[in-house]
Amino acid sequence: MKPGTLLIGKRKSILRSLSSELTREGIENVWVNNISHILEDIHPADYDLIVFGRGIEEGQKKRLREKFRQQKPDILFVDALAPIMPLLVSQIKFALNSWATPDRYFALLPFEKTTGGLKLNFVLTQQTTLNIELYRLNWFYQLKQQSIMLEHLTTGHHYVTFPGISPRKRDSVFIVVKDPAAVLAVGRPTI
């Protein structure tokens, strides 16, 4: 049985779009945008993953996490990074992949600031083809998406540079690392 995914958010349009994308990817899901009666209407045992949209307040998320964990201690939670469909789908696939196959052959090391941008360091313990994608969302919510690397790599220490990328207060920068079978990492660069 595929894990059930519950999407909780405020904006119906984003929830509908995300639900459609996940369904296309073969991920069963349900969405709700009214959380006032969610604890009475939703049964955590039906879900393996709960995804919170950015419009859900921290206090609400904390209360829901506690209540859901009381009923299902091993339930997983994801906080949406940004309203970018490919990024959200990658976040969910990463969480579900971590749940299904916790062993990793990819280790993400800290980012480094360089004179020309950012440098991402990582280690592979088996050879694979990696696809590293970059998403930038500026304060006007304009999206810039680019593939930084699509290469077959051997085992060992590797790095990739992101020229001209310097996370600023008004920009949101996100990285997605995939191989042909799974999403290996999703996140925001921290320096």
Q: How is this fold's topology laid out?
A:
Layout: E1 5-8, H1 12-24, E2 29-32, H2 38-41, E3 49-52, H3 58-71, E4 76-79, H4 85-100, E5 106-108, E6 112-114, E7 117-124, E8 128-137, E9 143-153, E10 156-163, E11 172-178, E12 183-187
Parallel strand pairs: 1-2, 1-3, 3-4
Antiparallel strand pairs: 5-7, 6-7, 7-10, 8-9, 8-11, 11-12
Report on this model:
- The chain contains four helices and twelve strands; from the N terminus they run βαβαβαβαββββββββ.
- It has 191 residues and is α/β, with parallel strands linked by helices.
- A four-stranded parallel β-sheet has the order 2-1-3-4, with helices on one face. Strands 5, 6, 7 and 10 form a four-stranded antiparallel β-sheet that branches.
- Strand 6 (112-114) and strand 7 form a beta hairpin.
- The longest helix has 16 residues, at 85-100.
- The chain is globular and about 50 Å long.
- The N and C termini lie far apart (39 Å).
List keywords for this structure.
191 residues, alpha/beta, 4-stranded parallel beta sheet, 4-stranded antiparallel beta sheet, 4 helices, 12 strands, 37% strand, globular
Largest sheet: 4 strands, parallel
| Percent of residues in helices | 10-25%
Mean pLDDT rating: 88
The number of helical elements comes to 4
Quick overview of this protein structure:
The chain is of the alpha/beta class. The protein contains 4 helices and 12 strands. A hairpin with a 2-residue loop joins strand 6 and strand 7.
